[in-house]
Amino acid sequence: MLMVVHRYLGVAVGAVMTVWCLSGFVMMYQGYPALREPERLAGLEPLKLDGCCVLPRLDPKDAARLSGFRIEMLEGRPILRAAMGRGSAGKTYDLITGRPFGEITPQIALGVAARQAEALGVEGRPLSIRAIKQDQWTVQFAKRHQPLYQVRFDDPGRTDIYVSGVNGQAFQHTNTRLRVLGWLGAVPHWLYPTVLRQDGKLWNEVVIWLSVAGTFLTATGLYVGIVHLGRRRNGRYSPFRGLWFWHHMAGLVFGVLTLTWVFSGLMTMNPWGLLEGGGDRAIREVLVGKTTGPQIEQALGQAVALKPRGDIAQLMAAPVAGRISLASVARDGEQVRLDASGRPSPVGEAEIRGMLAPLKPMRIELLAAEDAYYYGRKGDPADLPVWRAILRDDQSTRVYIDPDTGQVKRVVDRDARLSRWVRNGLHGLDFAGLRNRPLWDLVVLPLLLGVTLVCATGAWMSIRRIRRDVARFGAALANRRRRRLSLHPEPQEQAS
């Protein structure tokens, strides 16, 4: 019975797992297209506050939701981007007039896209612009930016840059290479076609249950493979021949790895909140402290009084232990906390220890190198040095704090540590000894090839076997009908 279940489940689920493996080869080198924050910063105009500013009068409801702010330039005008919590694009204010920034027109979007393209090294000019609701490359965050402006360039790579119609930010870019690799890699690997991904709940359920089915399929296959392994009178260790033999042998060699990969893939979806965590939010609130509307307005007043020079792209709120300071952000991403007069004021050790004191840490140290839970990924190095505190709580929580601005970079509790090893460790073989390339490639490529062989041979043989079963079932029905007709022939119509 188990063999039958395994065989029939292997038709659809085995085919999906084969697609996951094949697209995994592409995902090793190219993920889903994304405009990273350092790239967006490089596309901003240098911040100029001369002749500025008029602070906006926030609606009481907006003031209550205000969680931070950034001051930067948009089309030659200083603007305030007010953060209104997760999932929101926030609100944008013109600091020349103090009023909400007007409509993001196609002309504004073209200017933003052109500067972003220059920062990305695109050799071309805007060719066309169109307003869209979403497409394959914006489906996951389209709702908070609609309408979107898609600006196509005339460069050889046919670059597209997407600009938010809500706040005028560039937030995505693709080109021919990224789109082709996306269709070969991230889209099939994440089951990300627009028709499915646009319904977040449905997409989540489909991926989770396919992963559950894949885990069950692999586990049953391992069991069947082990049960059928043993030396026989003819000297063979497998009862199977041909492609079945190779599937059996490959499954025994790579089956455990296949199981860990499909199971860890399931865990990346955080099914049913198993790796939800959530304790980091309370810790962040302690470290950042409660800030009030008047404090934020005071920090805004200090910000607009500054006259930044050089390549500063942004001023932002930097709250530490209930006090709001300012931090400047250069176009290369470097952040520096400022005092009231605008001079650099890095967070000292005494202030770090003071903000951590309510959490009663058992150890605080300044790290100059990455550790197991704070490290760079996908070619982006981690910001170092960084303060690390290990708390004396029941989860031995680790907190990482930027020494320049006091920004909480990462909070790692027990669930986050488990998530790190299950998701990143098992699924990406992300271990310290393997992280350096090309060593990682030399290890992962043959392993992924072996897992692909297991999935592809299993799916192909299941399809062939089921086609044979269907043909036999059809032949059996035809034979039964012939026997019935021979025993009970149909009456012949009499000739008139």
Tag the structure with descriptive keywords.
496 residues; seven-stranded antiparallel sheet; 17% strand; elongated
Short description:
The protein has helices at residues 2-27, 37-42, 60-65, 106-120, 176-184, 186-189, 194-197, 200-227, 243-267, 279-288, 293-305, 349-356, 414-428, 439-487, and strands at residues 68-74, 77-83, 91-94, 99-100, 126-132, 148-153, 160-164, 170-174, 312-320, 323-330, 335-338, 361-367, 386-391, 398-401, 408-412. The protein is of the alpha+beta class and 496 residues long.
Please tell me the overall pLDDT. Answer: 85
What is the number of helical segments per DSSP (H or I, 4+ residues)? 14
Major beta sheet, specifics?
7 strands, antiparallel
Order of strands, widest sheet: 4-3-2-1-9-10-11
Helix content: 40-55%
- List segments where confidence is low: pLDDT < 50 over at least 5 consecutive residues: none
Distance between the termini: 57 Å
Integer-rounded radius of gyration: 30 Å
Q: Which H/E pattern describes the elements?
A: HHHEEEEHEEEEHHHHHHHEEEHEEEEHH
Count of distinct strands: 15
Shape: elongated
Structural class: alpha+beta
| Strand residues, percent | 15-25%
